[in-house]
């Protein structure tokens, strides 16, 4: 029987991740109702940070061996540059690992430089791991196809071994710079016309501005939110909707950064539904109160009638559901409840639903196929390579406009900002202008 001490470091990290994950499940199942809200909030975030770091440790060991240990066995170890390189790799990994802890200690009105640096390193870390794995797989495939009988010289073998991490690092640096530049640009404004069955003709061309996944927190602050609000006001929408993941922090801590939302003045109202990250803050009630103070109405499994300014008999039903993560976290008083959200919303009038996750949109249509339009977010369009592929396969709707059945559409926003990592690769931040068209 192999003892824990005899396990390789990667296996020890995997065991540690398993232990933390098990503790998270125990906390959700048995401690959720027994712990004080603030204690539960800190415990959940700490567990998530420790779990992520335990998993990352497996990749970090591979990065260290590929970019440092490999060269320590060659003549490069005696060069003047090797020690600075070794320190740089260590600092890079340390910053990447520390990124998750900034949610606990470094959130303010504007992002701290340390948080931006840490999350940038996390983004570069993900890209580097991908290229090291991909190039390693290509190398193994080449060896297999070339045949085991062919033996290369030691010099050529060492040269090829050194080329893999060098190429991976170069590609990582280039893509990191491109991703940072892309994310630093203002969101693009995408105008989409959507035919809405049974929308009154008096409400034809009604303009709805869709915001999603702003993620106020360690790397998004008041300046970026103020920019978004200015862009929204310039569009002069009839309605503004925020479909979740507005924040990654507690309301009290980040309140000054939220103030620009008070300038939103859409004539038919501004509405909000929760995303999964609101529940990670464990501070949803305080967020609801803060948003109400800015004249933003949370739709907590409820609906409102959007009445035409021209004729009070012309209206449609705008509904919102809690994010499905509330059920997973057993968040008291919250959870997706479509029946409650659509109470008094009949198929005689058009129905527009706000639901943060595309999977929730799918479930909603299975239960109520008479919904005409669902507005979602959550996927970020994958946000950055190589995470795009995972987001594509894990969600029934990925990004953009989808037609479902005869009279139903689903629109998934790629996000108005980004989560943590201030990078975008293969996606673009977006403010969506939805133009509702009557048939």
From TrEMBL:
Keywords: Membrane, Transmembrane, Transmembrane helix
Pfam families for the chain: Metallophos (PF00149)
GO MF term set: hydrolase activity
The keyword Transmembrane is assigned to this record: yes
Name under which the protein is recorded: TMPPE metallophosphoesterase
Residue ranges constituting the Calcineurin-like phosphoesterase domain according to the UniProt record: 206-381
The organism's taxonomic lineage, starting at the top: Eukaryota, Metazoa, Chordata, Craniata, Vertebrata
Highest rank taxon of the organism: Eukaryota
Transmembrane regions listed in the UniProt entry: 12-30, 42-64, 85-106, 112-135, 166-183
């Amino acid at each position: 029987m192999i003892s824990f001490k005899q396990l390789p470091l990667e296996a020890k990290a995997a065991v540690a991740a398993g232990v933390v994950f098990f503790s998270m499940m125990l906390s959700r199942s048995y401690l959720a109702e027994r712990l004080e809200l603030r204690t539960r909030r800190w415990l959940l975030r700490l567990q998530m940070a420790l779990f992520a770091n335990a998993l990352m440790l497996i990749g970090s060991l591979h990065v260290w061996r590929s970019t440092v240990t490999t060269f320590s066995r060659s003549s490069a170890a005696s060069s003047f540059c090797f020690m600075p390189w070794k320190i740089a790799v260590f600092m890079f990994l340390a910053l990447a690992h520390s990124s998750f802890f900034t949610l606990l200690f470094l959130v303010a009105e504007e992002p701290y430089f340390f948080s931006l640096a840490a999350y940038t390193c996390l983004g570069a870390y993900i890209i580097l791991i991908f290229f090291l794995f991909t190039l390693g797989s290509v190398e193994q495939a080449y060896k297999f196809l070339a045949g085991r009988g062919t033996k290369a010289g030691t010099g050529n073998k060492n040269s090829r071994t050194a080329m893999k991490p060098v190429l991976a690092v170069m590609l990582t640096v280039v893509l990191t710079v491109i991703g940072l530049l892309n994310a630093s640009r203002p969101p693009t404004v995408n105008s989409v016309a959507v035919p809405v069955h049974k929308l009154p003709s008096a409400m034809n061309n009604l303009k709805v501005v869709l915001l999603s996944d702003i993620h106020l927190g360690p790397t998004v602050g008041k300046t970026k939110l103020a920019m978004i609000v200015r862009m929204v006001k310039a569009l002069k929408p009839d309605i503004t909707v925020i479909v979740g993941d507005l924040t990654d922090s507690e309301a009290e801590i980040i309140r000054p950064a939220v103030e620009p939302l008070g300038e939103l003045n859409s004539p038919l109202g501004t509405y909000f539904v929760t995303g999964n990250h609101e529940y990670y803050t464990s501070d949803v009630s305080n967020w609801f109160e803060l948003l109400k103070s800015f004249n933003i109405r949370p739709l907590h499994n409820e609906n409102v009638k959007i009445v035409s300014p021209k004729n009070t008999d012309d209206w449609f039903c705008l509904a919102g559901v809690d994010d499905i993560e509330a059920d997973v976290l057993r968040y008291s008083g919250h959870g997706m409840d479509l029946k409650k959200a659509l109470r008094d919303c009949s198929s005689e009038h058009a129905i527009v639903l706000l639901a943060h996750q595309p999977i929730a949109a799918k479930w909603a249509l299975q239960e109520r196929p008479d919904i005409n339009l669902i507005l979602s977010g959550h996927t970020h369009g994958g946000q950055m390579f190589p995470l795009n592929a995972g987001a594509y396969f894990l969600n029934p709707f990925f990004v953009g406009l989808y037609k479902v059945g005869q009279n139903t559409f689903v629109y998934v926003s790629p996000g108005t900002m980004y989560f943590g990592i201030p990078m975008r690769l293969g996606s673009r931040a977006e403010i969506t202008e939805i133009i509702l068209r009557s048939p």
